Amino acid sequence: MEEKLVNPEFVEFVALVYHEGRNVKQLFRHNAASKKTFGQLADLPPDPGPGWDRLIAVQQKAAGTASAAEAENVFKEELGCSLADLAAIFGHAAWHRVPGAGGARWAAIANSVIELGASIDKKDDAATTKLIEEIRLMHHNTGTVKDKLARLKATRR
Q: Which long-range contacts (CB under 8 A, 24 or more apart) does 29-37 make?
């Protein structure tokens, strides 16, 4: 029997949350984020295209896993922080000093991606389908998740 791989959209959503999380370096100067927790993530390139390109290998590795928890763990091992860490830091008030990055909308997106992972691992197909559609349409600082993913994918060469 063939083992089913984790949902590829989940992996993309996780990558997108980590991609936005690379902006955490801007919180270091406000002493609002831990370099120990977020230092590896902050080392991703600041420009969106190169930052996304660096996450491609992590996505490919995560896509080969059999569960959402395993896929998330690939990102955590590679980048030093969890989705829960990202959801918490996105909720930090210091993002108000960094316009156009992070903040409450990204905290909501991260929490929805966490919820999606749980529904995938519970094999709750109805909740998974609903959450995927909701996450695609969630708004962040400059548009929707769906549009941001499309822009990032277009930067690939």
A: 30/94, 30/97, 32/92, 32/93, 32/94, 33/89, 33/92, 33/94, 37/80, 37/81, 37/85
Contact 54, 19 (CB under 8 A): no
What's the half-sphere exposure (Cβ side, CA atoms, 13 Å) at 119? Answer: 17
CA pair distance 47, 92, nearest whole angstrom: 23
Each residue's pLDDT tens digit, 8-66: 999 999 999 999 999 999 999 889 999 999 999 999 999 999 999 999 999 999 999 99
Cα distances (angstroms) measured from residue 99 to each of 64, 66, 96, 104: 36, 37, 6, 12
Tell whether pTM > 0.90. yes
Judge whether 68 and 116 are in contact, CB under 8 Å: yes
Domain boundaries, the chain: 8-152
